[in-house]
Write a structure and sequence with these properties.
Organism: Leptotrichia rugosa
Strand content: under 5%
InterPro entries: NqrB/RnfD
Pfam families: NQR2_RnfD_RnfE
Structural class: mainly alpha
Keywords: Flavoprotein, FMN, Membrane, Phosphoprotein, Translocase, Transmembrane, Transmembrane helix, Transport
Largest sheet: none
Oligomer: single chain
GO cellular component, one term: plasma membrane
Number of domains: 1
Length: about 350
């Protein structure tokens, strides 16, 4: 009985923390919202549509599978946060049905198939993007007009100026249109202790080195600075799909950077970051076990932990080569189809158990 009470108390504390974290995420995104709305209302429409898709499937899930009312929702605003963030990694002029689909898929196959938000394995936002890449790839090619505000500008923007581009640009996914807005949001989240510096900084330093290596080898990287920053701050730091402890976070961030760079050299460009995040998500729980503090709470790295980390690094790179091979030969959609079937099977079993 005592263990049950402690479990319920811990669960309540997790849910309360999730609620507060989501509120802070929304606040941190305000500068990005303001920056994107300088042009037109289209970014807002895309974000709202993605959020509606996320919320609708969440309500259906609660009613049909959990037999719960809306008021009984435990992880308040989690689906809303997923929907908003999924909308932010989409192009501003993507059709409404694509944004709706992205938000819905992110929640169903990133969150609901695992039952609770704290049990998820893959980052829901990245899964939502992957489903769009699979089913609506024509809207995500760099040349697609849905990415830019050309002809829809309400203010003059000089994109040739590097300084000006830090404040606002007219092309890219919604969340990456202003580097300054992302930095402001990151500072707020760190100040509120919702994220730490470890993953973003480790990732950014590794990527900076990789960009120089790519340039020296004649590889043109299409990902913008804003995209690197947005993914590093708002996506890679997801609480339940990234490591808990400092050394684990640094390892996670470095390997995300190395994986992304490896994908560039293997011929994968725009999908490099999302593939890297999904691969690292698989190892998150193992990284937590390897790099957990000792019984006295000290975080030190032993020789055994270094060897285990190297083992993980080798496995991660093997998966990078596998994903690159599958991507370059057009097989990634089949992995998505398999995961889709797996998700439907998991949901069906949940319904039977209930």
């Amino acid at each position: 009985m005592k263990k049950f009470i402690m479990f319920r108390r811990k669960k309540r504390e997790i849910n309360e923390n999730i609620f507060k974290t989501n509120i802070d995420i929304f606040i941190s995104l305000v500068p990005i919202f303001l920056a994107s709305f300088i042009y037109t209302l289209q970014p807002l429409i895309t974000i709202i549509t993605s959020t509606i898709g996320a919320e609708v499937v969440e309500l259906i899930y609660l009613k049909l599978y959990r037999k719960q009312n809306i008021s009984e929702r435990k992880d308040t605003f989690s689906s809303t946060a997923i929907g908003v963030l999924t909308g932010l990694i989409l192009p501003p002029f993507v059709p409404f049905y694509v944004a709706l689909f992205a938000g819905a898929m992110a929640v169903v196959f990133g969150k609901n198939v695992y039952g609770d938000i704290d049990k998820k394995i893959f980052n829901p936002v990245v899964l939502g993007k992957l489903f769009v890449v699979t089913f609506f790839s024509k809207f995500l090619i760099p040349e697609s007009p849905v990415w830019g505000f050309d002809g829809a500008l309400t203010i003059p923007i000089d994109n040739s100026s590097k300084i000006m581009s830090l404040f606002i640009t007219s092309r890219g996914m919604i969340g990456s249109l202003s580097v300054l807005a992302i930095v402001i949001g990151a500072i707020y989240l760190i100040f509120r202790q919702r994220i730490t510096w470890h993953i973003p900084v480790a990732f950014f330093i590794t990527i900076f080195i990789g960009l120089n290596l790519a340039a020296n080898n004649g590889i043109l990287v299409s990902t913008s600075l804003g995209e690197f920053l947005f993914f590093g701050v708002f996506v890679m730091t997801d609480k339940f799909t990234s490591p808990e402890h400092s050394f684990g976070k640094i390892f996670f961030g470095v390997m995300l950077g190395i994986s992304t760079i490896a994908f560039w050299f293997l011929g994968v460009q725009s999908e490099a970051i999302i593939y890297s995040i999904l691969i690292l998500n698989i190892f998150t729980r193992g990284i937590n076990i390897i790099y957990k503090p000792n019984v006295f709470g000290n975080e030190t790295v032993s020789i055994a932990e270094i060897i285990q980390g190297l083992g993980f690094a080798i496995l991660i790179m093997i998966l990078v080569f596998v994903f690159a091979f599958l991507h370059n030969n057009g097989f990634i959609p089949y992995l998505v189809y398999i995961y889709l079937v797996f998700g439907v099977w998991k949901l069906y079993n949940q319904n039977n158990e209930d």
